[in-house]
Design brief:
The chain contains eight helices and five strands. The chain is α/β, with parallel strands linked by helices. The protein has one domain: Rossmann fold. The radius of gyration is 18 Å and the shape is globular.
């Protein structure tokens, strides 16, 4: 005998996604300000430097390829690198300097002051992500953090823009983060497509 599915469970699965997405809508102005700041840096010749710990390390790679090789035909490619892609460097630094230094060390030698640093952390307490953003800030980069839950220690730091996926379930946080960085990509291009929006003395 085939049992009927428990639709209450199904409903809860979908409902757990509603509030985090609605909170993203509430934070629309914060997201837009971060996108505008990113677009200005790109406009001046900066690049995006992305990093994340654990699962977000693959998000960092995803973000980088979205900017370097846009999936939407006709959108301009923008320079971006993921600090999680080079296994030799990551493991070498982790062995010699410690795991906490894997991003900060790379920022020192690969990033320029006009660049953008985007750090991704599920709970906001990853020390290597925090140190990477702190080093970026010291070097003059624009700093952006994608975090979840209550934002953790990263939300209380001096990061320029902190965007929080307000959820307790790490799976839901990841889902909201994917939506966030797709919006970052899209709005950066929206600003590029509006002549004079970024800097009137520079042709888009």
């Amino acid at each position: 005998m085939v049992r009927s599915p428990d639709f209450a469970v199904v409903d809860r699965l979908f409902e757990s996604r509603v509030d985090p997405i609605n909170n993203l809508l509430v934070d629309a102005e914060k997201v837009a300000r971060a996108c505008y700041a990113m677009a200005r840096r790109f406009h001046r010749g900066g690049k995006l430097v992305v990093f994340g710990n654990g699962g977000p390390s693959t998000d960092a790679q995803h973000v980088a390829v979205e900017f370097v090789h846009p999936v939407i035909v006709g959108k301009r490619a923008l320079p971006a690198i993921s600090l999680t892609s080079d296994v030799a460097t990551v493991t070498g630094v982790a062995t010699g300097e410690g795991v906490d230094e894997v991003f900060a060390h790379q920022v020192r030698y690969l990033a320029d002051p006009e660049d953008i640093a985007l750090g991704i952390s599920t709970h906001g307490n990853d020390e290597n992500v925090l140190l990477g953003l702190e080093e970026s800030s010291r070097r003059g980069l624009l700093t952006i953090g994608l975090v979840g839950g209550d934002g953790g220690v990263l939300a209380a730091s001096d990061v320029d823009h902190v965007l929080v996926a307000r959820a307790d379930d790490p799976r839901v946080i990841k889902e909201v983060h994917v939506t966030m960085y797709h919006i970052l990509w899209e709005l950066v291009h929206v600003f590029f497509d509006q002549p004079g929006t970024l800097e009137p003395d520079v042709v888009a």
